[in-house]
Amino acid sequence: MMAQRATVLLIDDDRDMRWAMRNILADAGFDVAEAEGGRSGLDRVVRAAPDAVVLDMRMPDLGGDEVLRRLHRHDQGLPVIIVTAHGSISGAVGAIREGAFEYLTKPFRNDHFVNAVQRAIARRGEAPASSAVGIRATIKEAMGQGPAVESLIDQIEAVAETDYSVVIQGETGAGKEVVARNLHRYSRRAGRPLVVVDCGAIAETLTDTEFFGHEKGAYTGAVARHRGWFEVAANGGTIFLDEIGNLSMTGQKALLRTLEERTIHRVGGTELIDLDVRIIAATNDDLKHRAKAGGFRENLYFRLAEYVIAVPPLRARPEDVAFLATRFLTQARASLGRPPAEIAPAALDLMRAYRWPGNVRELRNVMRRAALSALEVIKPEHLTDSLGLCAVAPVLPPPISTSVITLRHKVQDHIRALEGDAVVKALEQARGNKAEAARLLGIDYKTYRTKLKTLRERVETTVDE
After folding, report:
1. Which residues contact 403 (CB under 8 A, 6 or more apart)?
2. Is 189 helix (H, G, I), strand (E, B) or coil?
3. H-type helices in 195-353, by residue range?
4. How far apart are CA 20 and CA 17, in angstroms?
5. Domain at 2-126, CATH class
6. What distance lies between CA 25 and its chain's CA centroid?
7. Mean pLDDT of all residues in the chain?
8. Rounded-to-integer distance, Cα 123 and Cα 18, Å
9. Cα separation of 27 and 102, whole Å?
10. Host H or E run for residue 3
């Protein structure tokens, strides 16, 4: 859970410098993302959707001037603050002519640094990104180039600039947060706070305090006034309720009341606070079905679901696997200081056939591991070594008959066998604890239970035969 006035991306190869800037900005109330070089920074800007970038001019992998040009091709309105050593001021001045917002020389005063960031973000708020071209480029870079992503972009474009409440449906790791951040980024609220709430982490007894805040002395331990998430976003911001299906019935009731009245008051207080807030919710469940079955408040669902966006799982868009895998591999190799590597066609075939229960997040982790073990070419065996229990097949088994079986079917059968073995071994290692087994495999609990159930049914069917 975090409340953020704005996100600032730091791109600097000096780890100590990043640490210092991160602490300064965090103390000033900003959310901070980091990248240790130009190439990783260009990748990070897609996922973090920052409101401003702080960019070092001199980096070994890609110079700051080139990074600046690429950042502005990605988002012309993104403010970029250049930080430079004394010897490269002329380069920074040139960068200003190329569209950088400002430059600061190292070392700089903390207050000057914070002030520059605040002014950059204020300018961003005056002219929020709203271009359909920007939405399309951002989502394609983050999620892929295929027809399923094109359809997703159409949904985002239709609602981004409105104040509709939106429910984003999709599996864990599919990219729901990327969609939510871009809905905010390309709305008229882009210069205001985006408040991200993990609904599964809210203790039922603290729902009102977390949502609405409390006054000093409202209860034992309330030693100072606390602003809740809704108050932080009250003046034109957006609240992103992640995994809304995990919100308790008490929390659902409080949320419904807030959406109906559009006012709140802190626990222990009487002052009414008017709300101008957009609600975006995400879920990996079928909320409409749950609402009809009584597992979620139906009246709350209809308040939230003025518009529903469906994020397709990675297995439904295998045409995007090669693009994403290549991008993740390039980023990982750059972060390791290693030259680029290629992905062998056989490895791509295996990845396209794999079902990716962890979706894009899992693919990214697979490529990061492969980047460590491979030299110049990622081969099937590198995927197996990297994935461990979740491995895809490095080598297909020899044919057992002369019948013609497609490569895709061979791969799928072998993957199914490996997945079944992984499910059983993880449960053994976790001593029967399904939640721990899911953690060991890097998948969510619900996905693990489904896989275990499917495996048991398959075993029972085999025995019956």
Report:
1. none
2. coil
3. 207-212, 229-232, 249-261, 287-292, 298-304, 321-335, 345-353
4. 5
5. alpha beta
6. 21
7. 82
8. 24
9. 21
10. strand 2-4
H-type alpha helices, 213-286: 229-232, 249-261
Residue 352 structure tokens: 């396209």
281: nearest Cα among 265, 296, 266: 296
Any bridge partners for residue 83, and if so which?
56, 104
Q: Which fold has domain 317-390?
A: Helicase, Ruva Protein; domain 3 (1.10.8)
Domain 132-312 sits in CATH 2.40.110.10: no
Taking the C-alpha atoms of residue 171 and residue 360, their distance in angstroms, rounded to an integer, is 10
What number of residues does the chain have?
A: 465
Nearest to 284 by CA among 181, 233, 183, 359: 359
- Phi/psi for 394 (5° steps) reads -80, -35
307: which strand partners? 166
As a whole number, mean pLDDT of residues 318-326 equals 95
Local structure of 190: helix, strand or coil:
coil
Q: Which tokens in the block code for residue 346?
A: 């056989």
**Segment 371-427, tens digit of pLDDT:** 888 788 998 888 876 554 344 443 334 444 444 445 555 555 656 667 777 778 778
For the segment 278-288, what is each residue's pLDDT rounded down to a tens digit?
999 999 999 99
Three-state DSSP at 443 gives: coil
DSSP lists the bridge partners of residue 32 as 8
CA-CA distance, 40 to 31, in Å (whole number)? Answer: 18
Query: Could you give the 3-state DSSP secondary structure of residue 139?
Result: helix
Look-up of token digits 């973000």: 121
Say if 2-126 and 132-312 have the same CATH topology: yes
Q: How far apart are CA 217 and CA 455, in angstroms?
A: 54
Q: Is residue 167 a contact partner of residue 308, using CB atoms and an 8 Å limit?
A: yes
Quickly list DSSP for 86-111. GGGHHHHHHHHHTT-SEEEESS--HH
Predicted TM-score (pTM) of the model is 0.60
Q: Answer for the pair 166, 309: CB distance below 8 angstroms, yes or no.
A: yes
Report pLDDT for 45: 84
Q: Which residues of 263-288 are buried (b: 16+ CB within 10 A; e: fewer)?
A: ebebbbbeeebebebbbbbbbbbebb
The three-state (H, E, C) secondary structure of 369-433, written as one string: HHHHHCCCEECHHHHHHHHHHHCCCCCCCCCCCCCCCCHHHHHHHHHHHHHHHHHHHHHHHCCCC
Contact 67/45 with Cβ under 8 angstroms?
A: no
Of 283, 327, 317, nearest in space to 301 by CA: 283
CA–CA separation, 144 and 160 (whole Å):
19
Copy the structure tokens of residue 340. Answer: 């680029």
Domain ranges of the chain: 2-126, 132-312, 317-390, 407-464
